[in-house]
Write a structure and sequence with these properties.
About 50% of the residues lie in helices and about 15% in strands. The protein starts with 5 loop residues before the first helix and ends with a helix. The chain is elongated and about 95 Å long. The protein has 16 helices and 15 strands. It has about 550 residues and is an alpha+beta fold.
Length: about 550
């Protein structure tokens, strides 16, 4: 009986876990229904045609008291089922200008009638209404200022005259938009059916038969790019207040994810680390969210399988006959450049760490391709090439000669254009940005030498096809993300250009089929090649 391999078992367990996670997310959108015969069912005090008035204040207190702690900002009349937005001007107290914190308090009351707003305390009577809901959020938050950019050729004198931005400590930033939501679904449920995350934000009427409007400030749509630094000379600034209705399921999802973000911050993750993750949930419907999760799970699984197969292939590889060393060197160089580019852009550690691991693996593959070995006794040693490797290197050199006629002018032109027309933080930033643009825009050209070698050798048996197929599947998954996720145009183009090269590889595999009777250890990546070959020779 053949037992499944450890890789198969782990893959099945991983897919089972992800399927359970997808069902858990989908079940959040299934509202409870009050059981028949239940006498204590509670329902929303709102209807689809209800109207509310949002009375909004600013304060510098974490727990403000009524009166002098609250500063009236705006009153916004909304229909529960319709979106609305308004721009208001916020005045900064001295404490906020001196790097202090500011909060926003929101009261949802039944729609105001004719109210005399000429008095400064007109709102006090309204917010004491027994049907009033309340929530509070931060209007400012601490963040490291964004590094300034300038034209390296035309603004050097201007940069010397201006005071550089202090990025050694976080400073107060104003949130340029605040998204306020009210649950608009008419959900009727029993007291024991109220989800825990909803129960923390729910308030009941005196007869305990209805629940008040559930107010929620959507923190997931507040991204770091929406922050504006509060300078010492600023006295006021405009912010955008947006009202949106929210469904029962989406409210549960956002509440649970907001709690998860708090746990991540408690474990040491920064706002920068979690900012990109927030973008997945913002303005995403259930179907697209589930597709994104499912595709991400398959992508992660293929990444793991490709990593395992690639390492197994190169660990057993004794010769690079038929493989383009130029392509191997280019992959190591490009992965290293992308890693330093992500560091320069201060990318989240969730992205930076995998990129660093990938760069180290590519560098290790270079040592295998160049026969570089290291020992503490003799240091670095370099092995010699076989006759087959020498022939492959000659063909590789020929391919690179033709390739350089196209590659070098394109890279040089892109570098000059970026230097003249694009602002950068420093010369180092320009170097990294220009190099990574070359990697994205023209990197696929370095895949062509391997195609040339396959054509000359009339064989593709030397390629790590199993690892290659896993990476190819991920390339098609990246095509899907290119339509779903916001990304630079160069990276989006890079996803599609890899498809073209992959299709050419498949066509070459069709033209040069592998002899099934010939033993080829390059595709036997899950077994021990030497042992398998020895057993077969004995049988013969």
């Amino acid at each position: 009986m053949n037992w499944p391999s450890l890789t198969t078992v782990l893959s099945v367990l991983f897919l089972g876990y992800m399927a359970n996670s997808l069902w858990s997310i989908a079940s959040l959108y299934i509202p409870p229904s009050c059981p028949a015969g239940e006498k204590k069912c509670i329902s929303s005090i709102l209807t689809e045609s209800s109207e509310l008035s949002l009375i909004i204040f600013t304060t510098t207190k974490v727990r403000p008291s009524m009166g002098k702690d609250l500063s009236f900002l705006e009153s916004l009349d909304v229909k529960v089922s319709e979106e609305k937005q308004k721009t208001v001007n916020v005045k900064f107290p001295k404490s906020v200008i001196n790097n202090g914190t500011m909060y926003m308090c929101i009261f949802a009351v039944p729609k105001l009638g004719k109210v005399d707003k000429s008095k400064s305390d007109w709102w006090e009577k309204e917010i004491y209404n027994p049907e009033t809901s309340f929530t509070q959020t931060r209007l400012t938050q601490y963040s490291i200022p964004v590094a300034e950019t300038f034209n390296l050729l035309g603004e050097e004198n201007k940069k010397e005259d201006s005071k550089p931005t202090d990025r050694s400590r976080p400073v107060s930033h104003l949130r340029s938009k605040i998204v306020i939501t009210v649950m608009s679904d008419q959900v009727v449920m029993g007291p024991g059916q109220v989800p825990g995350e909803i129960g923390h934000t729910m308030s009941l009427t005196k007869d305990r038969k209805k629940y008040l409007p559930i107010l929620f400030v959507d923190e997931l749509t507040m991204r770091l790019r929406d922050l504006r630094v509060v300078n010492a000379t600023d006295t006021n600034s405009d912010i955008e207040i947006i009202y949106k209705p929210i469904s029962f399921g989406k409210l549960r999802l956002f509440l649970q994810f907001s709690g998860a973000l708090g746990s991540m911050h408690g474990m040491g993750f920064t706002d920068k680390d979690t900012d990109e993750v927030k973008g997945i949930f913002a303005d995403t419907n259930l179907v697209l969210l589930l597709i994104t999760f499912a595709v991400s799970a398959v992508h992660l699984l293929f990444d793991f399988l490709a990593f395992k197969s690639d390492v197994s292939f190169w660990r057993e590889k004794k010769t690079v006959e038929g493989l383009s060393r130029k392509t191997i060197l280019w992959r190591a160089f490009s992965q290293t450049v992308i890693f330093f580019y992500l560091m320069d852009e201060e990318t989240s550690l969730l992205v930076l760490i995998p990129a660093g691991v990938g760069a180290l693996i590519e560098i290790w593959k270079v040592t295998k391709a160049l026969h570089i070995e290291f020992s503490f006794r003799s240091g670095f040693t370099y092995g010699s090439d076989t006759a087959g490797e020498a022939n492959t290197a000659q063909l590789d050199q020929t391919a690179m000669k033709y390739l350089s006629w196209v590659l070098y002018p394109l890279c040089l032109g892109g570098a000059v254009y970026s230097l003249i027309y694009t602002p950068h933080k420093s010369w180092y930033s320009w170097t990294i940005q220009t190099t990574v643009n070359g990697v994205y825009a023209f990197g696929f050209l370095f895949m062509l030498p391997q195609l040339f070698l396959n054509y000359k050798l009339k064989s593709v048996a030397h390629l790590p096809w199993r690892a290659f197929m896993y990476k190819a599947f991920n390339t098609f998954i990246d095509d899907l993300f290119a339509f779903i996720i916001t990304m630079p145009t160069a990276h989006r183009v890079a996803c599609f250009r890899d498809d073209i090269v992959f299709l050419i590889y498949l066509y070459q595999r069709y033209l040069y089929p592998v002899d099934p009777t010939r033993i080829d250890t390059s595709v036997m990546m899950d077994e021990a090649p030497a042992e398998k070959i020895g057993v077969k020779q004995k049988d013969d």
